Amino acid sequence: MARNGQHGEAGPKVLVFACRWCAGIGADGAGRQRLPLPAGFRLISVECVSRIDPDTVLKAFSQGLDGVAVLGCHLDGCRYNRANHVTAKRMAMLSTILESVGIGSDRLLTSFGTAHEGYQFAGLMRRFAQRLQAMPPMGDRERDMGLVSERRVEDA
């Protein structure tokens, strides 16, 4: 397991896409109840997670984020018919891509209908943060894979 502080004071940097009808309500509830949440998380509320394109997730990782969470409604409870079924398929495909390019599918959390209550949302985020804490930060990983070049002052 990684040492505490490996990701800095705020912990892993995570972008959360939350359906406003489910996980968004859970996030609001967690905030109102003042439940402990990881500091490095940033939430973007979306009308439906079917709007999240795999390219958006890949861009987040390319910018050094340690994890991305896509949190939608129950698979058969989507306000937009079966739109989140499409998202489930997209994210499964994206998980395979993340494995093949060396990022790892564990850095992507996809969950449907498990975070509509504040305590559920907070628990899900804490567990995801613990999982990411055990991994090297993405900035280190990109450097190790040769994706980011380090320029020394002498080279400039």
UniProtKB/TrEMBL annotation:
InterPro entries: MvhD/FlpD (IPR003813)
Metal-binding keyword on record: yes
Domain of life: Bacteria
F420-non-reducing hydrogenase iron-sulfur subunit D domain residues: 14-135
Keywords: Iron, Iron-sulfur, Metal-binding, Oxidoreductase
Gene Ontology molecular function terms on file: iron-sulfur cluster binding; metal ion binding; oxidoreductase activity
Protein name (record): F420-non-reducing hydrogenase iron-sulfur subunit D domain-containing protein
Organism: Desulfosarcina alkanivorans
